[in-house]
């Protein structure tokens, strides 16, 4: 008899009660919901902070260099339109890797 067969024979009679299984499933569902909500709100907060920082940077640039404000704003918009899709793709890739190695 191999160790695997011995292990299965020894522990085959042990099972969790249905109440315990239900409680574990509820707890896991609640944890997943909390994590997801915090993740989305954190992403929104970071995006708002970066947008505000970019606008302040544009205003400072246009005031110090004498660049017209519409031209400086256009540069900001172009930069956001280029970097935003790249950022989203990187976030998706890292979240999939995280889920794979976190065991979800």
Question: Main attributes?
Answer:
mainly alpha, 104 residues
Q: In words, what does this structure look like?
A:
This protein has 104 residues and is an all-alpha fold. Helix content is 88%, strand content 0%. The chain has helices spanning 3-11, 18-65, 69-102. Helix 2 runs antiparallel to helix 3 (69-102). The relative contact order is 0.05. The mean pLDDT is 82.
What is the CA-atom radius of gyration, in angstroms? 26 Å
Show unreliable segments.
Answer: none
Arithmetic mean pLDDT: 82
β-strand percent reads under 5%
Terminal CA distance reads 34 Å
- Major beta-sheet overview: none
Shape: elongated
- By secondary-structure content and strand pairing, the structural class works out as mainly alpha
- H/E element sequence: HHH
Number of helices: 3
What proportion of the residues is helical, as a percent range? Answer: over 70%
- How many distinct beta strands? 0
In short:
The protein has helices at residues 3-11, 18-65, 69-102. With 104 residues, it is an all-alpha fold.
Layout of helices and strands:
Blueprint lengths: L2 H9 L6 H48 L3 H34 L2
Helix pairs in contact: 2-3
């Amino acid at each position: 008899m191999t160790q695997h067969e011995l292990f299965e024979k020894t522990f085959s009679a042990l099972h969790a009660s249905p109440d315990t299984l239900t409680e574990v499933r509820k707890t896991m569902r609640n944890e997943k919901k909390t994590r997801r909500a915090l993740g989305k709100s954190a992403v929104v907060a970071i995006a708002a902070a970066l947008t505000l920082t970019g606008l302040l940077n544009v205003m400072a640039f246009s005031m110090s260099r004498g660049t017209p404000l519409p031209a400086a704003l256009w540069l900001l918009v172009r930069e956001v339109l280029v970097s935003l899709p790249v950022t989203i793709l990187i976030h998706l890739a890292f979240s999939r890797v995280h889920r794979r190695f976190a065991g979800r």
